[in-house]
Amino acid sequence: MEDLTSHPQDARGAMSSAGTLSDDELLGRFADGNAEAARVLTDRLGPRCYSVALRMLGNRAEAEDVTQEAMMRLWQLAPDWVSGQAKVSTWLYRVTLNLCVDLRRKKTPDRLSDVPEPEDGKASVVDRMQDQARKDALQVALAELPERQRQAVVLRHIEELPNPEIAGIMGISVEAVESLTARGKRSLAAILAGRREELGYDNDG
Amino acid sequence: MTDDNLELDQLFAQARQQRPALPDDLAVRIQTDAEAVRLNRMKPAPGPRPALLERLVRNLGGWQGLSGLVAASAAGVWIGFSAPAFLPDPVNLLTSQETAYFVADLGYDTSFLEITE
């Protein structure tokens, strides 16, 4: 960053310095036809986008689709992006969350059909649930949270974003973010306590 | 409740450590999209849709095709009014009335005459 501020012209000229540019500047360069800028932006923002989508949806294929779509919207937006008005990552998180909500809403009517039929009765369902719970108790519990609480908890406690940025992403006040994360945490703790007894993953977890 | 919170904090810490990397094939797909958008933007923007007359002219083979068509039409009109000698006069063809005589119209007597001849 120091290099960038002290020798802006050099930094702008050299391709190897693309990694030191801000998201804003990279997006501007991409809009000007620079392919390298897109690669750096993908490396920088793609994983964050994918991580959030995966936590929100709990499904890799869906998270991949959402990530690709969110990044596609970023590429298309590039020429119209007003530098300095908002953080690119804030915008991208918001688009990602909205795409996740849209996907879940579309899926809701036939959600039951997504659950595979048990092959030999009740036992296999319980086995599968125990297996999944052992693998990722947090994911199972997150799935039970209301949408907004889940968003706030994922952004705060897994993505480790500061509350003001979460407020910007979710379009609410910082106080509302604090309230959502607190309620979300309480619900998660209660869900986990209930699950622990129900599934017994404490015994050999 | 404190134990639950402790467990929850541990799960969060674990989740932060296990944050997934971007799958390689997804990174490739994202890059492919970016490249398509970039190349598409570099193409010159298509102009406005041409006017009706321009599209008509283009479909008839451009200005060359149209001039040929105009010449052929003018020749047709000229021949219509002032035909060369080896062609029948079109005006005459339209206006002349041919007179037909039918033997049967002359009645019984004529047929008798024909027989006697």
Task: Give a topology summary.
The complex is a heterodimer of chains A (205) and B (117).
Chain A: H1 2-6, H2 8-13, H3 23-31, H4 35-57, H5 60-77, H6 88-107, H7 111-114, H8 122-135, H9 137-142, H10 147-158, H11 163-170, H12 174-199, H13 201-204
Helix pairs in contact in A: 3-4, 4-5, 4-6, 5-6, 6-11, 10-12, 11-12
Chain B: H1 2-17, H2 24-42, H3 52-59, H4 62-81, H5 90-95, H6 108-116
Question: TL;DR?
Answer:
The complex is a heterodimer of chains A (205) and B (117). Helix content of chain A is 76%, strand content 0%.
Description:
The complex is a heterodimer of chains A (205) and B (117). Chain A has helices spanning 2-6, 8-13, 23-31, 35-57, 60-77, 88-107, 111-114, 122-135, 137-142, 147-158, 163-170, 174-199, 201-204. Chain A starts with a helix and ends with a helix. Residues 1-14 and 110-121 of chain A have low confidence and may be disordered. In chain A, α3 (23-31) packs across α4, α4 (35-57) packs antiparallel against α5 and α5 (60-77) crosses α6 (88-107). Chain A has 13 helices and no strands. Chain A has 2 domains: 18-111, Rna Polymerase Sigma Factor, Chain: A (Orthogonal Bundle), CATH 1.10.1740; 116-205, Winged helix-like DNA-binding domain superfamily/Winged helix DNA-binding domain (Arc Repressor Mutant, subunit A). Chain A is an all-alpha fold and 205 residues long. With 117 residues, chain B is an all-alpha fold. The longest helix of chain B is centred in the middle third of the chain and has 20 residues, at 62-81. Helices cover 67% and strands 0% of the residues of chain B. Chain B is rod-shaped and about 120 Å long. Chain B has helices spanning 2-17, 24-42, 52-59, 62-81, 90-95, 108-116. The relative contact order of chain B is 0.03. Chain B has a domain at 2-42. The termini of chain B are far apart. The mean pLDDT of chain B is 76. The chains are: A mainly alpha (205), B mainly alpha (117). The A-B interface holds A 30-31, 33, 35, 38-39, 41-43, 46-47, 50-51, 54-55, 60, 64, 67-68, 71-72, 75-76, 78-79, 137-138, 157-158, 160, 185, 188-190, 192-193 and B 1, 4-5, 7-8, 11-12, 14-16, 19-23, 26-27, 29-31, 33-35, 37-38, 41-42.
